[in-house]
Amino acid sequence: MKALVYDGVEQLGFRDVPDPVPADGEHLVKIQAVGICGSDMHAYLGHDARRPAPLILGHEAAGTIVGGPKDGTRVTVNPLVACQTCPACKAGRENLCPNRQIISMPPREGAFAQYISMPLSNLVTVPDDVPLAKAALAEPLAVSWHAARLVLEALHPSMDKTALVIGGGAIGLAAALALQAMGVTDVTIAEPNDARRAFLINTCGQSTVAQAHGQWAFVIDAVGYAATRAAASAAAQPGGVIAHIGLGQDTGGLDVRRMTLHEITFIGTYTYTAQEFRDTAQAIFDGRLGPLDWTEIRALGDGHAAFEDLHAGTVASPKIILDPWA
Amino acid sequence: MKALVYDGVEQLGFRDVPDPVPADGEHLVKIQAVGICGSDMHAYLGHDARRPAPLILGHEAAGTIVGGPKDGTRVTVNPLVACQTCPACKAGRENLCPNRQIISMPPREGAFAQYISMPLSNLVTVPDDVPLAKAALAEPLAVSWHAARLVLEALHPSMDKTALVIGGGAIGLAAALALQAMGVTDVTIAEPNDARRAFLINTCGQSTVAQAHGQWAFVIDAVGYAATRAAASAAAQPGGVIAHIGLGQDTGGLDVRRMTLHEITFIGTYTYTAQEFRDTAQAIFDGRLGPLDWTEIRALGDGHAAFEDLHAGTVASPKIILDPWA
């Protein structure tokens, strides 16, 4: 099959590799849409020790089961393979499973390829009327759905539900959409890139600012750098809640003194539970997350150029979806 | 009256000052016991811009109402004077009142003095059989009671309630006692000072370690420095909760990457609600916080020496209580 292989810092090669061979209980999935995530970009830039070259990246995938009794079933892929037996899994918190694997991190190859092999429990059936390019958004949307659920659960019931989302990439936009789907109507996205901000306003109908001034009950840091954490800890209201998504910088930025004096809660969030992945997929299918018409589709064979464009900041759309068969 | 006045960095003078004159609705309280807090020490060392010299420090006080219809009533003092009218106060979160005042910060003088003036709603009646030196512990115990309640509320119900408390001063010990009063039986205090650790074991019956190794569902950082936050973020289990008390250093220390990958929640905490102050006082009166026999009583006139001893690390007891009339 063809795959886009990460060969080293800023090197991606589109070439033939062996087809995956499904393990017991796994199914072969023909990938028809796979998104580029910020974490793929971190890996491409050599900033993710969990993703050493050579490796097939990509974990936001949708496609069609090939072979077996489910042959031809259109699916979106939950890339997080949990053990199902540890206390975290039994509590429905697969995101905390100490044995969790994620495709695009060894020992599992990623989905920038024509096929992957996955356990059936990681595959969610997609209705015929939902394009697979939309279904592939289940993964990034589930990341933000999880964060939105956690901040809503953590906020004191006396506070008005106002939200600032820092960063208008796919995760930030998805956080705004998830909060809105959960009934939070007052959502502002802070995004300094002018082209992306215009896109968020004009195509996505979101309220945006270049820089956050003011305070909100929720702040979702959808970037994960020291500077965005500094902004988040300045922008949370007393008694408010910050959810932090992203692995940009390991430490620094939080104004702990302010968080202490004003009882601000900070929740680190990463991925989602299996139920949240299914809930998010259902919300996509039901249209509760909007038209999801803010993606840009390119051929997987042009994947390297897509990474270069994203790194240069010249992509207005919050998400590029790659098609391995284009 | 006599008062211990903070005159500048590491300068405390015990001298005559004018008696306070109660404002409308306030009562004069004869102070009979007042504890030294870590925040008094920060101020004494010149590290607290909120407490500029000259100023009477001290906010952990108990005494007797003098004059008026409540004359002779023994009380412990909630030092946090909230506005009672803002949304936070109306929600019972007086600790988040934007107009809050705390005695020992301008415009209110503190309780290292023979008298203070306080609103009646800040005074909790102490039963005759409870010594005022014990009742004066309501304030630091309420700080930790609040933190313990917040971590218990935030923890996922599937997790075993194991707790690490970092720092074995009064706030750390109080956190351990509050958690135990709330039913958490597995509590470890990390305290590097050998004399204090021996005191915690022998006098307070606590489980202690010099350095934390391992992971716990709750971590209460009762110190508030970058190093203790680093220890806290390393010691929290995946899905666990950190409560942070203390204003030692404003920023730094947290391993945000680990907190993000493992969904660790960090809650900044400071003071307590009015209800929690009353609840803590009642727990003291009922004996639910133990014998509270771990204080050392000294004369207010010897207050400067007490600060010097605390700063030198030669005080094994987690709390020195000063008596303005000794």
UniProtKB/TrEMBL annotation, chains A, B:
Molecular function per GO: (R,R)-butanediol dehydrogenase activity; metal ion binding
One Gene Ontology term from the biological process aspect of the record: butanediol biosynthetic process
InterPro entries reported in the protein's UniProt record: ADH-like_C, ADH-like_N, GroES-like_sf, NAD(P)-bd_dom_sf
Pfam families per record: ADH_N, ADH_zinc_N
Required co-factors: Zn(2+)
Gene3D superfamilies for this protein: Medium-chain alcohol dehydrogenases, catalytic domain, NAD(P)-binding Rossmann-like Domain
Keyword vocabulary terms for this entry: Metal-binding, Oxidoreductase, Zinc
GO cellular component term of the entry, any: cytoplasm
Domain Alcohol dehydrogenase-like C-terminal, first and last residues per copy: 170-283
Keyword Metal-binding among UniProt keywords: yes
Keyword Signal attached: no
Domain (Alcohol dehydrogenase-like N-terminal): residue spans on this chain: 24-128
Superkingdom, natural source: Bacteria
Family note: Belongs to the zinc-containing alcohol dehydrogenase family.
Protein name: Threonine dehydrogenase
Naturally occurring in which organism (per UniProt): Cognatiyoonia koreensis
